[in-house]
Amino acid sequence: MPPDIPSSPATRPVVKRTARAILLDDGGKLILIKRTKPGLAPYWITPGGGVEDDDAGVMAALHREVDEELGAKVTDVVPAFVDTVEHITGDGEHGVKVQYFFACRLESMDLSLRHGPEIDAPDGEYEVVRVPFSRMGIASVDIVPLTLRHYLDANIEGILGLLGPDLD
Q: What are the residue boundaries of the Nudix hydrolase domain, all occurrences included (predicted)?
């Protein structure tokens, strides 16, 4: 279990943690990755991925992942949403995956700088897309996980408030 997550007899073991960006550009659009895998319907995910052993923490993983997947830098990073789901690791360990979602703004992006396993050895296609950060925009794509889709739909104004100048 990661050292920063308390353990008790009532908790399930955390076997994976991810850091994901609810990323808005300066035009107010949500940046997503359209995933297309052979034999599956397309789905849309927020940029991000697993916290690795050499990451200093979840926030460091977020910055590394958006750099890898988008060639991007983000700013105004604020914790927004946590999702916990049952998970079985590749070696069969049972527990939960905790996904940390951060609201943030795009500072810069150069897709030619993308790198990492998703780019170097892709399993299907990774297409960067922008959708309006509105209820209609969110409804226009199949965002996963479903809990995030519901959270976004219910909290557009709250997320914009997290990124507002008066949060301090």
A: 15-156
Position 24: which residue type?
Answer: L
- Which one, of 40, 22, 33, lies nearest residue 105 by Cα? 22
**pLDDT tens, position by position, 38-69:** 999 999 999 999 999 999 999 999 999 999 99
Q: What string of DSSP letters covers 59-104?
A: HHHHHHHHHHHHSEEEEEEEEEEEEEEEEE-TT--EEEEEEEEEEE
CA distance 138 to 128: 15
- HSE, side-chain direction, 13 A CA sphere, residue 107: 11
> pTM, whole model, 2 decimals?
0.91
CA 167, 108, 125 angle in degrees (round to 5)?
110
Burial tier of 55 (Cβ tally within 10 Å: 0-12, 13-18, 19+): middle
Give the tens place of pLDDT for each residue, 9-43.
678 999 999 999 999 999 999 999 999 999 999 99
